[in-house]
Amino acid sequence: MSLNLRGVGVALVTPFTDGGQVDYPALTALIEHVTTGGVDYLVVLGTTGEPATMTTEEKHHVVRHCVAHNIGNLPIVVGIGGNNTAEVIRSLQTFDLSGVSAILSVTPYYNKPNQNGLFAHFSAVLEASPLPVILYNVPGRTGVNMTAETTLKLAHAFPGKAIAVKEASGNLSQAAYILRDRPEGFFVLSGEDNLSMATVAMGGDGVISVSANAFPDTFCCMIHATLAGNIHQAAPLNLTLHEVTDLLFAEGNPVGVKAALAIKGLMANNLRLPLVPASEALCQKIRYQIDKYGL
């Protein structure tokens, strides 16, 4: 049976101890928190998980831990991407992907390929990947936007392999063109939490969310209601989450969401350099929103 990506995928943070090690008990607690909160699948080693600061061994251990502690038996997506195509392919061929359903692969960053380069990169990745691939377009982080035309070209050229796009351009018009011309079975997922309801209302399939780490119940209710066409139920939830979601990204990701998780007592507020914890001013604003709306 093909993988169903409708609904809410949560881009899991990676908890760290005060000594800078991966906090596996906190990771177990986080998986339980988001699973009971209603998420539909887990995304491990996405940008929110800080994989850029993790060793290869740590990445393997984190994925194996998530597979072993997947209490809801949810689909698991693992982030494997980069700006060295050959290295991405090597990782895909050597990483232990047992228990994993799909790969999330980001557009190459820093070297800023053109659209032909993006198509060639992802063509090589899709041909090499042992699992279906979610294309990840996030120009705010990578410095390059993959156009709707390129996304659609990949979706049509690799049916069953290019199964979705996580569209985090912040451009609803770009998402609309992908929605209009996508092949059957190709999922369009929002990569912007505060645009996810709008994307789903246009015909999108869901979201890979940061906010769902901290507020899975409210966020999932909002997306699931929108998918069901219950806009009147979803709209107030969307507005409730709007300001706190903006705050989660005010000093970078996962800075804000780790602050929120610490406020809720789910983990220590530790990040790896070059990221540092949220300012006290931001923590106070997030705490106020959590208290005001019962999040």
Automatic annotation (TrEMBL):
Give Gene Ontology CC terms.
Answer: cytosol
Biological process terms from the Gene Ontology for this record are: diaminopimelate biosynthetic process; lysine biosynthetic process via diaminopimelate
**EC id:** 4.3.3.7
* Catalytic activity of the protein: L-aspartate 4-semialdehyde + pyruvate = (2S,4S)-4-hydroxy-2,3,4,5-tetrahydrodipicolinate + H2O + H(+)
| Catalytic residues (UniProt) | 136 (proton donor/acceptor), 166 (schiff-base intermediate with substrate)
Keywords of the record, alphabetical order, are: Amino-acid biosynthesis, Cytoplasm, Diaminopimelate biosynthesis, Lyase, Lysine biosynthesis, Schiff base
Localization, UniProt = Cytoplasm
One Pfam family from the record: DHDPS
| Family affiliation | Belongs to the DapA family.
Its function, per the record, reads: Catalyzes the condensation of (S)-aspartate-beta-semialdehyde [(S)-ASA] and pyruvate to 4-hydroxy-tetrahydrodipicolinate (HTPA).
Q: How does it assemble?
A: Homotetramer; dimer of dimers.
The name this protein goes by in its record? 4-hydroxy-tetrahydrodipicolinate synthase
| UniProt source species | Candidatus Rikenella faecigallinarum
